[in-house]
Write a structure and sequence with these properties.
This protein is mainly β. The protein contains seven helices and 43 strands. α4 packs antiparallel against α5. The chain starts with 7 loop residues before the first helix and ends in a 6-residue tail after the last strand.
Length: 584
């Protein structure tokens, strides 16, 4: 064998090691996909491996297993869950409710846009809340408005609350309960049912047979002895019947025991506070009916029972200067959950000197000019007509409340897919001078309509540097039986106020009048009458933006994005703005 050159051999070894290192270093230093690789090392070789996520492994004899840890990726998360109704406060599953209650939907989730309460049962109801807390009848600065179950028939109900967020995701929860406001009188029925045992004198039924025979004989001289004996025996049965029927007396109906703030025959003037003093349990409503030179009806559902309602127990004063001088009769009728009622009547005179007997009319429009010039001299001056989408306002002889003409407001394509369709007739001049006034108009609905989420018919707008929005509006909606009715909406604060007092008639004129007091603080006031009956009376409210440049811009509208039929026509006539109430 030829000896190897002692210089060549070390060079060959060095060259081989260098080649191996050149091959291994790229593998060891660059990130690779997860997998398994095997590398054989010669004795004395050294291998350096780096892993940014950490190394782990084990050595067993001539073999070592080294693992580069997988990245600590966050655990996969499901798409952010939508809103959820986690429960209800104020009602439990299967509970029996009576009187007034405060039911709250407990909502979890972000960016909640609305919570819809849907009540189904003997009488249905829908209420929408846009801001927490979410109560079935809304709240006043966080204080819940109680729901009066006495206004609903007894029976089984299902309440579903559905929360929806800005992304359109929703979550719902359902509770089942029973309204039982007339269940209490039931025990008083049982005593009257008990006399049935006295029907056991079926033995005594036998003696009457002879009486039948005796009375069947025309001979008046028929011996009365047999008939006298059997009729004497049933006498004891009359006693339990008398006792049983006497027991219901404790459940006498309600009574009006008197009035506070007025005496019979008294003369009233200015502003007064009048309260009906009511005795009895489970009172569902007290109706005040005023008759005289000008009539008025007001309904209260919760004590204390004032003629103009109250604000957290503080009575709203009744302004007699809004009524002509003369003799009046006030009748208060209290009704309980069982349908029993009691009344009280008082007579008095209103004498304010007659200076304010006639309303002071600031502006009016009866449309007898055949155009809209009474609303505004030119478009945008003191008012105007503002149309959106497929809409039209015109003067027509089709129907009229007085004279020959009325205004016709028609919208088309209000199908829920084409955007808002609107006719809005504005009058803005008077509100700049008079911070409080009465705004009234006659409506005529030729047929029944079914709006979607909203139908704006009467509104007051407030304007500042960045906003021109409806502050308060009177909307049209439907009851469970399809009947139309007015409800009040505080659009800026997304609050709705419902009523069960009056419906909107079809095919006849109905009068709407609103007293509106402008206020950027909580000193505003709004009262709504329909055909002389108070539907809403809210005091201590905000009615305009704090930095408003214009407020109480009043308009009468046919305005919605969804209604059935999708072409809808309404008529208005005899619009008035005044400093005192007009009345129907």
């Amino acid at each position: 064998m030829t000896p190897t050159n002692p210089i060549v051999r070390p060079l060959a070894i060095l060259l081989a090691v260098g080649l191996l290192v050149a091959l291994l270093i790229p593998l060891a230093t660059r990130p690779t996909r997860a997998g398994q690789q095997t590398i054989a090392l010669a004795p004395g070789d050294q291998l350096t491996i780096t892993c940014e996520t950490g190394l782990d492994g084990a050595v067993q004899g001539t073999q070592a297993t080294i693992q580069c840890a997988l990245p600590a990726y966050p655990a996969p998360t499901s798409a952010q869950a939508g809103p959820a109704i986690t429960g209800f406060n104020g009602v439990q599953e299967g509970q029996a409710l009576s009187g007034t209650v405060a039911i709250e939907a407990l909502v979890s989730g972000d960016n909640i846009t609305q919570v819809v309460f849907q009540l189904d049962g003997p009488q249905s109801m829908t209420h929408v809340e846009h801001n927490p807390p979410y109560y079935i009848q809304g709240d006043n600065n966080g204080v819940p408005n109680e729901w009066d179950t006495t206004q609903y028939p007894d029976g089984d109900y299902t309440l579903t609350a559905t929360a929806t967020n800005a992304a359109g995701e929703s979550g719902a929860l359902t509770a089942h309960f029973r309204i039982a406001n007339q269940a209490q009188p039931e025990p008083t029925v049982e005593p009257t049912a008990q006399p049935e045992p006295t029907a056991q004198p079926e033995p005594t039924a036998q003696p009457p047979e002879p009486t039948a025979e005796a009375t069947a004989q025309p001979d008046p001289t028929t011996p009365p002895e047999p008939t006298a004996q059997p009729t004497a025996e049933p006498a004891p049965t009359a006693q339990p019947t008398t006792e049983a029927t006497a027991q219901p007396e404790p459940t006498a109906g309600p009574t009006i025991s008197g009035f506070n703030g007025v005496k019979d025959g008294q003369t009233l003037s200015g502003k007064v506070v009048m309260e009906a003093v009511v005795a009895g349990d489970n009172i569902s409503q007290v109706v005040f009916q005023l008759d005289g030179p000008q009539s008025m009806t007001h309904v209260e559902h919760n004590p204390p029972y004032y003629i103009q309602g109250n604000n957290n127990g503080v009575p709203n004063e009744w302004d007699t200067t809004q009524y002509p001088d003369g003799d009046y009769t006030l009748t208060a009728t209290a009704t309980n959950a069982a349908g029993q009622s009691g009344t009280g009547t008082i007579h008095f005179a209103i004498v304010n000197g007659g200076a304010q007997q006639q309303p002071t009319i600031l502006w009016s429009a009866d449309h007898e000019t055949g155009d809209f010039s009474q609303w505004f001299p030119t478009q945008g001056e003191d008012g105007g007509i503002y149309d959106t989408g497929s809409s039209n306002a015109s003067i027509t002889p089709d129907v009229a409340h007085s004279g020959n003409y009325a205004a016709k407001l028609t919208i088309s394509n209000a199908n829920g897919q084409s955007g808002p369709q609107a006719v809005r007739i504005f009058r803005t001049k008077e509100s700049r001078t008079y911070p409080e006034a009465y705004y009234s108009v006659w409506f005529y609905f030729p047929q029944q309509y079914t709006p979607g989420m909203w139908w704006n018919l009467f509104q007051f707008k407030s304007v500042n540097a960045t906003r021109n929005d409806a502050f308060w509006q009177l909307n049209g909606g439907n009851r469970a039986d399809g009947s139309m009715y007015f409800y009040l909406a505080n659009w800026v604060n997304q609050k709705l106020y419902d009523q069960t007092i009056k419906n909107i008639p079809v095919g006849q004129w109905t009068h709407v009048e609103v007293y509106y007091k402008q206020s950027a603080s909580n000193t505003g006031h709004i009262t709504v009458w329909q055909d002389g009956v108070v539907l809403f009376d809210l005091d201590g409210i905000t009615t305009m933006f704090a930095d408003a440049t214009e407020s109480a811009n009043w308009s009468v509208n046919n305005y919605t994005d969804d209604i059935s039929p999708s072409t809808a026509t309404i008529y208005i006539d005899d619009a008035v703005i005044s400093t005192t109430r007009i009345g129907p």
